Amino acid sequence: MATKKFLYVNRKAPYGTIYALESLEVVLIGAAFEQDVSLVFMDDGVFQLTKGQNAKSAGMKNFSPTYAALGDYDVNKIYVDKESLEERGLTLDDLQHLTWEDENEDWAEKDSIRLVTRAEIAEIMDTQDVVLSF
Amino acid sequence: MLHVINKSPFERNSLASCLRTIKEGASVLLIEDGVLGALEGTAVSGKVREAMENVKFYALQSDLETRGVSDKLMKGIECIDFGGFVDLTADHDLVQSWL
Question: Is the CB of B91 inside 8 Å of chain A's CB atoms?
């Protein structure tokens, strides 16, 4: 199967709607088919990556630990919109520290999250074969 | 009157509409994605702080916890549990949910 560049655009806060969880499921499927996967988190989507989520008292499933597994699926291009973070009073420190291991460099641990501007997101979108929005 | 907001203020205008319409002495309860309007240092916190001079704000603890943002709750907003939610609705004659 030919490899295509898939971009998943995540713009919704988690838990209030089903979008974030559905996106994560589809991302994992795409990665399992060995496609070239990138994720963008912008607007309220940046809340999907906050650390310390605890859905117990709300009686829901906390799916945020799954993001940490993306590196094992070779999903290591995770773009976070800087302006969306700032508008929401968040910094990178408020987000999970997501990493992956680079087999070409003796499994060196590298950061998966890349802070980007709106202009850079436009460039990233422009170079994809498929863009899926959630 | 109790106003209940369950939508993110960054995505919908329900909080903005509510604050435009609200009367002095009323209460606002932020639940579900609405709790994102209760956070410190955001693009909407100035508007909320301004409204706090005339209106009492509450936010549902479990929805803050779920989203990992409990430690960012704006000063002056009271954190309540489900029991507090029930008390609030019982204490007010009218409840307006801004869907």
Answer: no
Distance from CA of B52 to the nearest CA of A (A): 19
Q: Do A16 and B33 touch (CB under 8 A)?
A: yes
C-beta atoms of B43 and A88 within 8 A: yes
Read out DSSP for A22-77?
A: HHHHHHHHHHHTT-EEEEEE-GGGGGGGBSS---TTTT----GGGGGGGGGGT--E
User: Looking at this predicted complex, what is its ipTM?
Assistant: 0.87
Please tell me which residue of chain B has the smallest CA distance to A61.
B66
pLDDT of residue A121 exceeding 90, the answer is yes
SS3 call for B13: coil
Indicate yes or no: pTM above 0.95.
no
User: What pLDDT score was predicted for residue A30?
Assistant: 84
pLDDT surpasses 80 at A125: yes
